[in-house]
Specification:
The complex is a heterotrimer of chains A (267), B (273) and C (344). By secondary structure, chain A is mainly α. Chain A contains twelve helices and no strands. Classes of the chains: A mainly alpha (267), B mainly alpha (273), C alpha/beta (344).
Chain lengths: 267, 273, 344
């Protein structure tokens, strides 16, 4: 820590972090509370205490299948978006292509339009060309909307990087591939990691594209939850969310134990 | 292979993907905005731009997005700084807490807010007990409800964007500034802040565009009486089934966001804005 | 929306999903999720599969989303059968997305009330269930039981009234009824809009979706809402003190229709599905599970169920239907006017 931080500021920092966490976590506390409620409707504070909703979710084929599909798509999308977006960001950062600036904006454009417009356009296109949608459609669609996050976060990190490192590696005789793998990619790792993380989350929670680009056997978790709400808005949807919160925390603890905290938290 | 060729090869997959799987379907949809019964028409745009109601919706969308972005930056910058300066284990847990909201389904999370902000919700109840509000007071279905709900989901994007840049700032620069007699706050302002600008720019762009284009949270928390453009587009697509008008609104949203973004990118200068 | 694409040359054939699903004995349909889908399976889908040795694939999609999907997939629809509850079949038939239905090929259609099958030759599928629009009230907390649609405006309910946005099908019908008792008509919705302004001034709130109504009754002490009989039952099943009454001035009917999608190879099997849906036993089962009015005159309901729905020749006569074609023709303009009225 740089010299002593004044005490007043230190206290203010604690208070600030506490308040921010309150804002971020308040609705999650509600969700967790609702999930253990005995009542058939979403109410807080919960009436009674029961794990029945967990039982009903975990024994429901529909939820489990949906969760498996969401996970599969999110992983595929994380891989494709990180590789494609990361590569593009590295090239855009060099600014040696005509219209680099325009291209950087172009890569952000999928964020600007409401996904409903994109979803309908994609559905029309795929139906016309291929007679229907498939996993491929959903994968491409999700990759498109996740790409901007990777490009942005990687570009931001690269802008702070040392341009002379790559030059030095060149002088030392490293070829293109070596320079890319050993110098450039490590430099943008924090950005890539943040981008990959966003991509996973966006894809996992995406409801609109998944709602329209699907067949009977392609129902993702958010779509399953949405479909449950109209006629049976019960605490089972809260139980699903609580399970996801639990899995996230668990996953991070495991990563911490197995890989060690430092590597992961260098983000 | 020249440097240019290498750059081209690196961008090619992205350009192809966006070209074929984004531009083509979007174009197919947006071209509807000039479709009329007797050939091309600007009637759908005229309907929007000539109606104070829709102009109000556009203005609210841009205004709320700006407010949300500013609040996210105001919280995200100090938060990222604290995260960058604490030990790795605490940092990890702060990161986990910041991203947890992203791990719950948007619909469910929004129901959480509805419980807290509704008429008999916790927060209005407390305000009523303090004598600060009347019986029908609620935060639900107001603009502040939209802002609160959106800041909660978008803060991770801002914080992590800034954090990524901030961890790369050489701490010795700060030490140097302190040694030269700068106070803590002065150091923050003249060393850390300028160096974090690329992160703030990247985060702001994400937050601003996401606020402008998302509709589930604003729709549920703002209610039908406080519409934003993206929610209006969703209605046109699924309820009134007026796709040309939906397309026109999307074009206007796109243009509106660009009008705000381009000067911002230009002002923040050479950075990778 | 045809041929908008002047042929994109990405002929990556492997991307094609193919429509291999469209085999002889498979149907793709939509259902509405949750308890509805459970009942739908039990009453219609599973018996149909067993009787015909067929497989039915269900896509959970509400009417509005399903219609958007159907329209976007005009070139290659994935549904064989599509169910609507918001009048979408009228637009669907106009746009040629739905096929005309030949009544002579349906065994059960003869038992169905005439009004429920009026336009099947045009492509508007027959109604198999009817939700009655009336008033849901909180029987524990409300100061009195509402009887007339005008009670919505009674100051006794004031800020405990929940209105539903007219982008919601039930909301639209409730609003048109309010408009009618205030002296308006389908050519003049101003009296209704004025009444809505008064309600909002009194502190009423506006919601868009069904779960929000549940939320208001469960959490925020709502007393009165204009909505449908089936949802009152949903609330009651969840343990909320919600009762349903029909307004004295009349009960608008919301139809749930089963439609035959055009350009599908399997229409013969699909027709059998429609026939099954129209049968007395299927409709009785749906009424028992979800409290809908059957449209098959031979459907027999127990007293308990009959008390919750409009039932029998006489009961059904009391239902009134706002001319659906007129609603469709005016929908965009009405939604515009409504939005401007409720905007803060």
């Amino acid at each position: 820590m740089v010299r002593a931080v004044p005490n007043g500021i230190r206290i203010a920092a604690y208070a600030f972090v506490a308040l921010t966490m309150l804002l971020l976590l308040a609705p999650l506390v509600v969700v967790i509370g609702v999930s253990v409620s005995e009542s058939q409707f979403i109410a807080f504070p919960p009436n009674g205490l029961s794990l029945a909703w967990y039982r009903s979710v975990l024994s429901s084929d529909a939820y489990l299948r949906a969760a498996a599909l969401s996970l599969q798509i999110a992983l595929m999308v994380t891989a494709s978006a990180t590789v494609i977006g990361g590569a593009a960001a590295i090239a855009l950062h060099r600014r040696n292509l005509p219209g680099s600036a325009v291209m950087a904006t172009f890569f952000l454009s999928p964020l600007v339009l409401p996904t409903i417009i994109y979803a309908i356009g994609m559905l029309m296109l795929w139906s016309t060309l291929f007679g229907g949608v498939s996993m491929m459609t959903l994968w491409l669609g999700h990759t498109v909307i996740c790409l901007p996050y990777v490009v942005r976060t990687t570009l931001a990190v690269l802008s702070e990087s040392d341009p002379f490192l790559e030059e030095a590696a060149r002088t030392m005789g490293a070829n293109r591939i070596q320079r890319l793998v050993h110098v450039v990619v490590p430099q943008c790792l924090p950005g890539l990691a943040a981008g990959a993380f966003f991509a996973f989350n966006i894809s996992f929670d995406e409801a609109v594209l998944s709602l329209f680009l699907r067949r009977a056997d392609m129902t993702t978790l958010p779509v399953q939850i949405y479909g449950q709400l109209e006629f049976s808005p019960d605490p089972s949807v809260a139980a699903v969310s609580t399970i996801m919160i639990g899995i996230t925390i668990l996953l991070i603890v495991v990563i911490d134990r197995v890989l060690g905290i430092k590597r992961f938290a260098s983000t | 292979m020249s440097d240019r060729t290498e750059s081209l090869l690196l961008t090619l997959p992205g350009l192809l993907l966006l070209g074929l799987a984004f531009l083509v379907p979007i174009a197919q949809m947006l071209v509807l905005s000039i479709e009329g019964e007797n050939g091309p028409t600007l009637a759908h745009f005229a309907r929007f731009l000539g109606d104070p109601f829709y102009l109000g919706v556009l203005w609210r969308t841009v205004r709320l997005s700006l407010i949300i972005t500013v609040i996210c930056a105001a919280i995200g910058f100090p938060l990222a700084y604290i995260m960058a300066r604490v030990g790795p284990r605490l940092r990890l847990w702060l990161i986990v807490l910041v991203i947890l909201p992203l791990m719950t389904s948007v619909v469910v999370r929004t129901f959480g807010w509805m419980v807290l902000l509704g008429r008999s919700g916790l927060i209005p109840d407390i305000l009523r007990d303090l004598g600060l509000a009347g019986r029908s007071f609620a935060i639900m279905h107001t603009e502040p409800a939209i802002v609160i709900g959106m800041v909660q989901v978008l803060l991770p994007f801002m914080t992590l964007s800034i954090l990524g840049v901030m961890t790369r700032i050489d701490q010795r620069l700060e030490e140097a500034a302190r040694t030269m007699g700068c106070s803590f706050v002065q150091t923050l302002r003249s060393v850390v802040l300028p160096l974090s600008v690329p992160g703030i720019v990247a985060g702001s762009l994400l937050v601003f565009t996401l606020s402008a284009s998302s509709f589930i949270t604003p729709n549920l928390l703002g209610g039908p009486r406080i519409q934003v453009l993206a929610a209006s587009i969703y209605r046109s697509v699924t309820q009134t089934l007026d796709w040309p008008f939906a397309a026109a609104q999307a074009v206007i949203l796109f243009a509106g966001v660009l009008v705000v973004m381009i000067p911002y990118v230009a002002l923040t200068g050479r950075g990778n804005g | 929306m045809k041929t908008r694409l002047a042929v994109t040359t990405l002929a990556i054939a492997t991307l094609s999903s193919g429509t291999a699903l469209a085999q002889d004995k498979t149907l793709v349909i939509n259902s509405f999720g949750g308890a509805y889908e459970t009942a739908h399976k039990e009453c219609i889908i599973t018996p149909f599969e067993q009787e015909n040795g067929a497989t039915v694939q269900i896509v959970t999609a509400y009417s509005a989303d399903a219609f958007a999907q159907l329209r976007a997939q005009k070139e290659a629809p994935q549904f064989d059968i599509i169910h609507f509850s918001g009048g979408q079949e009228i637009v669907g038939a106009q746009e040629g997305l739905l096929s005309p239905i030949d009544a002579s090929k349906l065994e059960n259609i003869g038992d169905v009330y005439d009004f429920a099958k009026a336009n099947i030759a045009k492509g508007e599928g027959p109604a198999y269930s009817i939700a009655a629009i009336g008033m849901i009230y909180n029987s524990d907390n409300a100061p009195k039981a509402p009887a007339s649609w005008k009670d919505l405006l009674d100051p006794a309910f004031a800020d405990h009234v929940v209105l539903t946005d007219i982008s919601n099908g039930y909301g639209m019908l409730g609003f048109l009824m309010l408009n009618q008792v205030q002296g308006g008509s389908l050519d003049d919705i101003q009296p209704g809009l004025d009444a809505v302004s008064t309600l909002l001034d009194n502190g009423a709130i506006v919601v868009t979706t069904s779960p929000e109504i549940q939320q208001e009754f469960a959490q925020n002490d709502a007393w009165l809402a204009a909505y449908a009989s089936d949802y009152a039952y949903t609330l009651r099943k969840a343990g909320l003190p919600a009762k349903f009454v029909q307004g004295a001035e009349g009960t608008p009917a919301s139809y749930i229709t089963v439609n035959l999608v055009a350009n599908r190879p399997n229409q013969e099997l699909a027709m059998k599905f429609i026939d099954k849906t129209m049968s007395a036993e299927a409709q009785t089962c749906m009424a028992n599970a979800l409290r809908y009015t059957p449209t098959n005159a031979k459907a027999e309901l127990s007293d308990e169920v009959a008390a919750d729905v409009a039932y029998g020749e006489e009961g059904v006569k009391g239902l009134l239907r706002f001319e659906p074609a007129k609603i469709e023709a005016n929908r965009a303009a009405w939604v515009d006017a409504w939005n401007k009225t409720i905007a803060r």
